[in-house]
């Protein structure tokens, strides 16, 4: 069993029969009273971030998780199907645990986090940026570029991304998968 002195960012712990990942922590030693650890914990099932305070020296239940490389194959009625890049094992995963399913194209490499004891998938994380081709975009109005004006554009996965006016159909762009925003044009 670990104690609160072992808490660090990224550590996976069990709290109230749920798995949480430590997003942020701070050891606090007030002038009066006992020390404590203030944390922000991210629920690995729902993605919700909650604050939680532990008294110093309390035992915590550390859980082992593994990140494994997978490749997205296709989507069907079972969910999204992925293949392990080394063992070629295929698994279906529900859409709820994928970080940005609208920006995923066939052949996309992802990392799936598994609970080591139960072998259940907890989350599926895309790389921070993906390169996608614009399939449809309205033409930009000339002379409208004095400000950072954006227009909607459809990418090859079917998702809609707001892009600057100078981006046209057929161009490749880099999209941030964390918030689905335009990052830059790919040459």
Q: How would you explain this protein's 3D organization?
A:
The structure is a single chain. This protein is mainly β. It is built from no helices and 16 strands. The strands form 3 sheets. The protein has a 6-stranded antiparallel sheet, with no helix packed on it. A 5-stranded antiparallel sheet has the order 9-8-7-10-11, with no helix packed on it. Strands 14-13-12-15-16 form a 5-stranded antiparallel sheet, with no helix packed on it. Strand 8 and strand 9 form a beta hairpin. The radius of gyration is 21 Å and the shape is flat. The mean pLDDT is 89.
Strand and helix map with partners:
Elements: E1 2-3, E2 12-15, E3 18-28, E4 36-43, E5 49-55, E6 59-62, E7 65-76, E8 79-84, E9 90-93, E10 109-115, E11 120-125, E12 129-137, E13 150-155, E14 160-164, E15 172-176, E16 181-186
Antiparallel strand pairs: 1-6, 2-3, 2-6, 3-4, 4-5, 7-8, 7-10, 8-9, 10-11, 12-13, 12-15, 13-14, 15-16
Question: Which features does this protein show?
Answer:
single chain; 187 residues; mainly beta; SH3 type barrels; OB fold (Dihydrolipoamide Acetyltransferase, E2P); 3 domains; 6-stranded antiparallel beta sheet; 5-stranded antiparallel beta sheet; 0% helix; flat
Summarize the structure.
The chain has 187 residues and is an all-beta fold.
The rounded Rg comes to 21 Å
Mean of all residue-level pLDDT scores? 89
What is the domain tally? 3
Identify the CATH architecture of the largest domain. Answer: Roll
Shape: flat
Q: What's the CATH C level of the largest domain? A: Mainly Beta
Give the topology string: H per helix, E per strand.
Answer: EEEEEEEEEEEEEEEE
Major sheet: arrangement of strands: 1-6-2-3-4-5
């Amino acid at each position: 069993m670990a104690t609160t002195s072992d808490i660090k960012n990224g550590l996976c712990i069990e709290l109230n029969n749920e798995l949480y990942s430590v997003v942020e922590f701070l050891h606090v030693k007030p002038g009066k009273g006992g020390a404590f650890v203030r944390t922000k914990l991210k629920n690995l099932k729902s993605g919700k971030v909650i604050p939680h305070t532990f008294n110093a020296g309390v035992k915590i239940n550390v859980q082992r998780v593994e990140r494994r490389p997978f490749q997205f194959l296709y989507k069907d009625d079972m969910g999204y199907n992925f293949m392990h890049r080394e063992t070629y094992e295929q698994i279906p995963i529900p859409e709820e645990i994928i970080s940005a399913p609208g920006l995923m194209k066939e052949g996309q490499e992802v990392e799936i986090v598994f609970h080591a004891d139960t072998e259940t998938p907890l989350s599926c994380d895309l790389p921070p940026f993906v390169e996608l081709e614009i399939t449809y975009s309205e033409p930009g109005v000339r002379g409208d570029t004095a400000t950072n004006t954006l227009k909607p554009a459809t990418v090859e996965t079917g998702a809609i991304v707001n892009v600057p006016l100078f981006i046209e159909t057929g161009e490749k762009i880099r999209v941030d998968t964390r918030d689905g925003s335009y990052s830059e044009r790919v040459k």
